[in-house]
């Protein structure tokens, strides 16, 4: 006989024990384990430290995909199925998109943008899923390139290379703008949203996007750049900037 010490996975072991009590038939299942010869307390402690130091965290998109307790994660998964341009166009397993990928956005990015959109709303409120679905569907109407990519009329890679609207920073900014617009104009926000058709989304439009959404031609996800991008969207649809947003615009104009 030998004593067994669980160096990593204590909570999972306890969960398995509890699961077996509820469903004994799971006892026929198998899981892989790694067994090491006990070389003393210091060795065990070092092994524990190494296991935690070098543990690979799953991609945030995967956490959202498999999180059935978080109502926002469940809502976003539902929205992906309901919004035509998102269905089969959202990267579900990774937090970044390769140059050759046909996907437009990551799940984690859409989750973040939707979280901003619902700022101040109770996710459990009746009609929230319909509101979010409606908002992103309306956005797709004013950014027709998304549907063109969905219909294989243009590649997602081409959009990423030439436009800012195919990047997470803009999706995040759209969520921020959307929250303010719906709050300010709950009855006619759809009409005001059409003003976004006027925007020149090309990355070559450096007069508008350089320093705001891009730094030296590269898209920036930094929060100030997200907010500066959202400010352009807000002003376009007629939403008044907050005191903090006006201060940010002033610093931007001064080159700070």
From TrEMBL:
Spell out the protein name for this chain. DNA sulfur modification protein DndB
Which species is this UniProt entry from?
A: marine sediment metagenome
**NCBIfam families xref list:** DGQHR
Where does the signal sequence lie?
A: none
């Amino acid at each position: 006989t030998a004593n067994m010490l669980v160096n990593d996975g204590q909570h999972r072991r306890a969960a398995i024990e509890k699961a077996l009590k509820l469903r004994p038939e799971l006892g026929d299942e198998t899981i892989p384990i790694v067994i090491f010869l006990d070389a003393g307390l210091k060795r065990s402690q070092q092994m524990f430290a190494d296991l935690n130091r070098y543990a690979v965290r799953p991609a945030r998109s995967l956490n959202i995909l498999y999180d059935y307790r978080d109502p926002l994660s469940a809502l976003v998964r539902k929205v992906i199925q309901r919004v035509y341009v998102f269905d089969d166009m959202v990267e579900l397993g990774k937090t970044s998109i390769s140059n050759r990928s046909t996907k437009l956005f990551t799940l984690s990015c859409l989750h973040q943008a939707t979280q901003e959109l619902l700022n101040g709303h109770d996710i459990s409120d009746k009609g929230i899923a319909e509101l979010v679905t409606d908002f992103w569907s309306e956005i797709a109407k004013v950014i027709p390139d998304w549907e063109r990519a969905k219909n294989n009329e243009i590649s997602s890679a081409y959009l990423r290379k030439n436009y800012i609207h195919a990047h997470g920073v803009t999706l995040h900014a759209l969520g921020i703008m959307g929250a303010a617009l719906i709050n300010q104009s709950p009855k006619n926000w759809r009409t005001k949203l059409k003003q976004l058709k006027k925007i020149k989304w090309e990355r070559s439009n450096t007069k508008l996007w350089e320093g705001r959404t891009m730094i030296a031609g590269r898209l920036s996800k930094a929060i100030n750049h997200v907010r500066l991008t959202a400010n352009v969207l807000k002003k376009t649809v007629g939403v008044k900037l907050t005191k903090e947003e006006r201060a940010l615009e002033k610093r931007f104009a001064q080159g700070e």
